[in-house]
Specification:
- Helix content is about 30%, strand content about 30%.
- It has four helices and eleven strands, in the order ααβββββββαββββα.
- The longest helix is centred in the N-terminal third of the chain and has 29 residues.
- The protein is globular, with a radius of gyration of 19 Å.
């Protein structure tokens, strides 16, 4: 799994370069006016603080319901529900960093430089998920290109190393609560093994999100449904 500060730098370079190339290839570039945000810093009363805490708690509570909706809208044969979460899964969310997704039971969090979070199976280390969050001036994924074009660039230049041979299998776009996500499936062949992976990417409020999950090719038939649930459950909370 390529999860490092080098990978983060590659993502940043890709987003900047792809957006610039997309603009240069377009005869007309009609950009919507940037959203004006006014920030006033002042002392906050205890009642205002309680209101802010309640708002965050509400967003966190609603994350679970939206996760379940996202999963069941995109996975054909989802497992049985258990408290609005597919059986055998746990919800991961961070309201401050604006993300949520599901992981299978048994995956443990590990620390990897250059990532927002990484979870992996302690027995099968290739069964894992990583999330990177980087600043971007690109406003939407369409500014970078089609799902196929963006996926191809990412798997060839960012998500695999020079020692691996990548192969794009599929790419598609989906909508969750008005935000666009590109999800693509690919393999990366190394000298000793092949990893089968699914990535979901999004742009929200000046941040570029890249979630990648996968498993060893030899275990793909067993893990395919779980990996797809992880990838397609990813969304931005607000």
């Amino acid at each position: 799994m390529a999860c490092s500060s080098l990978t983060s730098a590659r993502v940043s370079a890709f987003v900047a370069g792809a957006a610039l190339q997309q603009k240069s290839n377009s005869k007309v570039c009609a950009r919507a006016p940037a959203r004006k945000v006014s920030c006033v810093k002042a002392s906050v009363s205890s009642s205002e603080a309680r209101t802010e805490i309640s708002r965050r708690e509400l967003m966190s509570a609603s994350a679970t319901a939206t996760l379940a909706a996202a999963v069941f809208a995109t996975v054909d044969a989802a497992p049985a529900l258990a408290g609005n979460i597919p059986s055998g899964f746990s919800a991961i969310s961070d309201g401050n960093k604006n993300y949520a997704f599901l992981i299978p039971f048994g995956w443990q969090e590990v620390s990897v430089d250059g990532t927002a979070c990484v979870y992996k199976d302690v027995i099968e280390p290739l069964e894992s998920v990583s999330l990177t969050i980087l600043p971007t001036k690109t406003e939407k994924l369409a500014d970078l290109g089609s799902p196929e074009a963006v996926a191809k660039q990412l798997i060839e230049n960012v998500l695999t190393s020079t020692a691996q041979t990548p192969k794009l299998l599929s790419a598609a776009s989906r909508e969750v609560e008005g935000n666009t996500y590109y999800t693509f499936e690919f393999t990366s062949q190394s000298p000793n093994f092949t990893r089968h992976q699914v990535s979901s990417i999004s742009i929200k409020d000046g941040k570029f999100f890249t979630l990648t999950t996968g498993a060893n090719e030899r275990r793909w038939k067993k893990m395919e449904k779980k990996i797809n649930i992880v990838a397609k459950s990813f969304y931005n909370i607000y």
